[in-house]
Specification:
Number of strands: 0
Shape: globular
CATH class of the largest domain: Mainly Alpha
Helix content: over 70%
Largest sheet: none
Number of domains: 2
CATH architecture of the largest domain: Alpha Horseshoe
Number of helices: 14
Structural class: mainly alpha
Radius of gyration: 29 Å
Distance between the termini: 123 Å
Order of helices and strands: HHHHHHHHHHHHHH
Oligomer: single chain
Amino acid sequence: MKIVLLIRSWVMTKRPVFPVGSILVCLLLVSCATDLAERKRQAEASRRLGEAYLNEGNFTGALKELLTAEKLYEKDAFLQNDLGLAYFAKEEYELAISHFKKALALKHDYSEAANNLGAVYLRLEEWDTAIEHFKKALDNLIYATPQFALSNLGEAYRGKKDYELSIAFFKKAIKANAGFPPAHRGLGLTYMAMGDYWTAASSLEKAVQYAPRFADAYFDLGRAYASQYTNEKALPAFKKVVELAPDTPLADSAIAEIRKLQE
């Protein structure tokens, strides 16, 4: 009996003992991990709602949801890019730049964010900085939509009045995606800047062919026709602008052009 008791006592004393503090730490880590997962889930839901608002053009609603998501979990490159887009749409350029840079810090090969960052500098007419970011976007060989950055490079070089490079990049964008309307329009605008209105009209015709509701391209097409004194083509183009974008500054400009042609 004594032997049995001694053996049991020995077994009991050899069992591992876990300090209470270690157990509490483990429980805390599990709790934190669960809490983080839930915050990420909620943040993603708010981000997706914000993206839906962005697509609808409701930039204030988008910003509200995206800021809610950021409070829950900020280390999301896609969220930071979305915030940059919302601020860009509201013409808060410094804030847009800040969030696009955060997106790139979180995801170094995020070509869309690099292109968007370049687009802000393009709007600010900081051509060389814009070009730097567009080229960074293109460094990623698996960038799915290079036509965006290529077309933006065309815009930047036209801004620098380097028309040869502008044409070259617009043509590369069209090679990447033949049906990309902004590249056809941009190419047309570069030819217009060079005074080649016939070639400009040809490119702009393709822009409206691929995007029949592209009011800005119709306006540019009207100007290209008017510059060739082909009023019979210019008038319908300007009238199409008024039809597509009524009660807008662009429509007002088109009406002014129509009146000039009818004088």
